[in-house]
Design goal:
Number of strands of chain B: 4
Largest sheet of chain B: 2 strands, antiparallel
Shape of chain A: globular
Distance between the termini of chain A: 24 Å
Strand content of chain A: under 5%
Strand content of chain B: 5-15%
Oligomer: heterodimer
CATH class of one domain in chain A: Mainly Alpha
Structural class of chain A: mainly alpha
CATH superfamily of one domain in chain B: MetI-like
Largest interface: A-B, 103 and 104 residues
Radius of gyration of chain B: 27 Å
CATH class of one domain in chain B: Mainly Alpha
Distance between the termini of chain B: 26 Å
Order of helices and strands of chain A: HHHHHHHHHHHHHHHH
Radius of gyration of chain A: 24 Å
CATH architecture of one domain in chain B: Orthogonal Bundle
CATH topology of one domain in chain B: MetI-like fold
Order of helices and strands of chain B: HEEEHEHHHHHHHHHHHHH
Structural class of chain B: mainly alpha
């Protein structure tokens, strides 16, 4: 494409660059605006008098003596105990990713190495399950979970998220394992390995790129989930997203909107870091399903 | 791999899906056909010198016994499906009989919660999906033709709206469009209307939600199309150029046909994902003007009294809707695995 880039007329170049700039602003500005504003008081964040206050922090200076304040963060993390939600999210994400990957790697590998008809039907069933909105399943969980007295605790939510994760992870790992030549583990089996030994010694050492990509998407699903965590966790065990949702109700009335803003920014930061380090894997995962078809 | 080995490899994931997806599915179907038992009441008459009084009290023992005998509740068949909160067969029939005109019928239909939610869900799905495809395609074309060094940075930033938690992303925009927020204030100045609020009217709320939907999903379309653009054969483009095709013609006749399988992929994924629209309604506190099927389920389950049967019924109806949308995906997958047919 570099050859015709030189030939592009100036007007077209200008149009392209201004459009890209517009998209860049659309994609990024809301995040930076909110991050900037999270260090202000509410009257600056919602600047009724003069919008420039949101930039300069005039009101914040009046109250705290400096244009930046961590009061919102202090209120959210300490007073409202957001750290608890942050910790819960950490626990839920860690175990969901760990268990999801373990069982989906085995399952995806088996699907890719089995030539029988039923593996196709299993994939179709997984596709149907992937299409179901998770919230439609929740009313099916509630009765038995009350009955067994396991509602509201983290392990229950982790298992449910693992299960909801399976169809997608299974598909992703299945198509990844299919790209690994069958001859590799076949020859190990000829040398006398069992199927599991072949998997253990031949496949596991080379599967990490695919597993990391699948893990990223499992993580995002667990991290971003609202429907399941909001309805299956008790008040004390809430993760970040339902906690933020419950902030909206309470803080709006008490005039503590800045707590919610600080909590929202706190929830975004880990995602920023994730994209920064794993951009390549995310892109390859998003396009994996598309490009082969 | 023989059947036995396959079984042991596949069992953990199969067990997880069976217990937590397949079983709950059958459970919601059965819940939607039952309601909780009525309380067994005892009517007792007590008489004293001033007259007789009847007192009604709950017979806890009998109620419990009824529950133990039939833990699923009272069988009601399809009654919940047809009640006012769901398909509202009777109400729709009355509206149809008394309609002044077709538009009158549809505007009154919107007062019924299920049809109201259905209306927004379908509008959102079928407006956002094409917009995402067009916008994502234009962004991909534009970013593909900028300076090589800029591309990496742009891809990084373009991923953000999609990666960020939907509830969090919608909250951020919600604060910005607040009448005291930066976009809200800007719009008031542009339209010279200090009363303007995007939250006040149904139309504006729908537009806001749709804009959010496009903002959130466009990066996905962008990434897929951008990857596709890297595989456009250069020879075809060059020969088109030699034949005198303009840039626009090159895009329309070389690039678009090359990307059309990807368009189908993005469209199918987007239809499924947009049909479950839910978090933005919570984030934008938009339930007064827009509800979706997922939101109804959440609302039934989240209240003080958990309306399990009602939520289960809406869930079943939602799943039927998803299945209809899913048909093309299944056909496509079928063809992929059975290329001869």
């Amino acid at each position: 494409m570099s050859t015709d880039q030189i030939k592009k007329p100036f007007k077209l170049q200008l149009l392209i660059y201004s459009f890209v700039f517009l998209w860049f602003v659309l994609a990024v500005f809301p995040f930076f605006w909110t991050m900037w504003g999270s260090f202000k008081v509410e009257l600056d964040f919602f600047s009724l008098a003069d919008w420039k206050n949101a930039l300069s922090g005039a009101r914040t200076t009046v109250v705290y003596g400096t244009p930046f304040t961590g009061a919102g963060y202090e209120g959210a993390w300490i007073q409202e105990e957001f750290w608890r939600a942050f910790r819960n999210t950490g626990i839920v994400c860690f175990f969901t990713v760990l268990i999801s990957l373990t069982i989906a790697t085995l399952g995806g590998y088996a699907l890719s190495r089995s030539g029988f008809r039923y593996s196709f039907w299993l994939l179709i069933i997984a596709l149907v399950f992937r299409a179901l909105p998770p919230i439609t399943l929740v009313s099916g969980y509630l009765l038995p979970f009350y009955e067994w007295n396991v509602w509201g605790i983290l392990p229950t939510t982790i298992i449910v998220l693992v299960a909801i994760n399976q169809p997608f992870t299974l598909w992703m790992l299945h198509s990844f394992f299919q790209k690994i030549p069958k001859e590799l583990d076949e020859s190990a089996k000829v040398d006398g390995c069992t199927q599991f030994q072949a998997f253990r010694n031949v496949i596991i050492p080379i599967m990490w790129p695919g597993v990391i990509t699948a893990g990223l998407f499992s993580f995002l699903l667990a991290y971003n989930d609202f429907a399941v965590t909001a309805l299956l966790l008790s008040q004390d065990n809430q993760t970040m997203v339902p906690k933020i949702a419950s902030f909206m109700g309470t803080t709006q009335t008490e005039g503590n909107v800045m707590f919610a803003v600080a909590a929202v920014v706190s929830a975004i930061i880990p995602l920023f870091i994730l994209v920064m380090f794993f951009q390549r894997q995310l892109v390859s995962g998003l396009t994996a399903g598309a490009v082969k078809g | 791999m023989n059947h036995k080995t396959f079984f042991w490899f596949f069992m953990p994931t199969a067990l997880a899906m069976l217990l937590f997806i397949a079983l709950p599915l059958t459970s919601i179907v059965s819940q939607s056909l039952h309601t909780p038992h009525d309380k067994v009441l005892i009517v007792a008459e007590t008489c004293d010198p001033f007259g007789c009084k009847t007192e009604t009290s709950i017979d806890h023992k009998a109620t419990q016994q009824l529950k133990d005998e039939k833990p699923l509740g009272k069988w009601v068949g399809l009654k919940i499906y047809f009640d006012r909160g769901h398909l509202a067969v009777k109400e729709v029939g009355e509206l149809w009989d008394n309609k002044a005109s077709l538009s009158d019928f549809f505007s009154k239909l919107k007062n019924l919660p299920f049809y109201r939610a259905m209306g927004f869900t379908l509008t959102f799905t079928f407006v956002v999906t094409p917009l995402v495809i067009v916008f994502g395609f234009v962004v991909a074309l534009a970013i593909n033709s900028v300076n090589q060094r800029l591309k990496g940075v742009l891809v990084f930033f373009s991923l953000l709206p999609m990666i960020v938690t939907p509830l969090v992303g919608s909250l951020i925009l919600f604060w910005m469009i607040d009448s005291r927020g930066i976009i809200g204030t800007a719009l008031q100045i542009i339209f010279e209307n200090p009363e303007l609020s995007l939250k006040a009217s149904t139309g504006l709320t729908w537009i806001t939600l749709i804009v959010y939907g496009v903002w959130h999903a466009a990066p996905f379309a962008f990434i897929v199309f951008y990857a596709g653009l890297q595989t456009v054969p250069k020879e075809t483009l060059e020969s088109a150029m030699i034949d005198g095709a303009s840039r626009f013609q090159q895009v329309m006749h070389v690039i678009v046909p090359h990307l059309s399988p990807l368009v189908a992929f993005v469209a199918l994924m987007q239809l499924m994902d947009n049909f479950r629209v839910f978090e933005p309604i919570i984030g934008f506190s938009a339930e007064a003007h827009a509800t979706s099927l997922s939101w109804i389920i959440y609302n039934d389950l989240g209240g003080e009294t958990r309306l399990l049967s009602s939520a289960a019924t809406t869930s079943v109806l939602t799943i039927i809707g998803v299945s209809i949308l899913l048909m093309p995906v299944l056909v496509r997958t079928w063809r992929e695995f059975n290329p001869s047919e």
